[in-house]
Amino acid sequence: MLGLLSSAIMRFIAPLLVVSSMGMLVCGFNAFPTKHLAHHHVPLSVSRSSLFMSTSFGAFPEEWSDSDNSESTGRYSTNQYDGNDGAFPLPDDTDITEARQLRWEREAMVQSKFVSDDGVFELRRKISDLRLRLMDAREKLAEEGQQQRIRELEEQLFSLNTKDAEFMYAMSLELMENAQREGDLHTAEKYRLQAAEARLVIPQLNMHGLWVGKYGDHGFEMINVTYAGDTLVATKVTGDQNVPKGEVSFTVDLSPHIHSDKGMLSLEPIELNAKASRQWGKKFLPRYQGQGQVAAEGFTNAKWIEGQLILVGRFFSFAWVPIGHQVFFGRPSSDLTLKMLREQQEDDLKRDQVSVMREAAHNMMEETYWIEKDDSFQGGWE
Hints:
Elements: H1 2-13, E1 24-27, E2 30-33, H2 48-52, H3 70-73, H4 98-111, H5 118-139, H6 146-161, H7 165-181, H8 185-199, E3 209-214, E4 220-228, E5 231-236, E6 248-253, E7 270-271, H9 274-280, E8 284-285, E9 287-296, E10 300-312, E11 315-320, E12 325-330, H10 334-379
Antiparallel strand pairs: 1-2, 3-4, 3-12, 4-5, 5-6, 6-9, 7-8, 9-10, 10-11, 11-12
């Protein structure tokens, strides 16, 4: 199951990999330019399974099983996360507040207005076909009966477009901005609310919060997803020697394009084969262009490289395309969240203590140097 999905993803990503005439390092099933190794925030001596699935879809690979060998498996226990879909579930006894329940009901009501999942791609294919037919009808405007035909096609096109949440979001934002420029604040507010409603059901714009993925040999790391407008920003909550906590791991511009059949998609979706589609309950995996940050140890020589965000149901992955590495993310449980934050705090404390000791040693060496200088100077006058 893991291999089917990852093979589908890597089949789309692999042709984009940078091929160097210099030495190549074979990792799993891809070859990567060795010149990139020192700059990525994930060491690329990566196993086949971690390239396939970095946070688990279904059962965790054996190398992530709970054991005392923390150096090879990462520091975080995974044996409690064995749900049917591989997610990191919230405890069963979590209280659901009335406000949250009302929000869920509102979202369900809004969702019912729009097509979702694979239906979105089928809808856009119908819209694209309808636009071609409309263009053909307009070219034949002089023929008898074409005006009626054009009106019918326009009505059908409008009806289909209103079922696409991304289209409605983009259109509402455009109409809101037009109303604001004209000083019509009442109409602008109406379209603002309409845009906010459509935005609620767009998955890639509602990924706020904590996610956990396995960053190669660095083990599991936690990111916090926020948005700057329609740009997704993934900031490290726990970090490593290359890209530390507090730094941005990757960003993705998800701004909608009203005049595009792809909506927010800047790339064609990944289409799964029949077997993988049955297993995952979906045929298409949406993907979006982004930028991933890489750096050498000590967060030096930091730079941004091409990346791709890929949605996989309740999960997502981000691929650093030129170096052929991807990390899969899932939601952490409250226990895992607390454990990772506690261990990050312990690491920070250790680093602070080492820094204090290093500074103290430096000061003592400097003081010793000047004491010896003073003794030497005074001895010269005797």
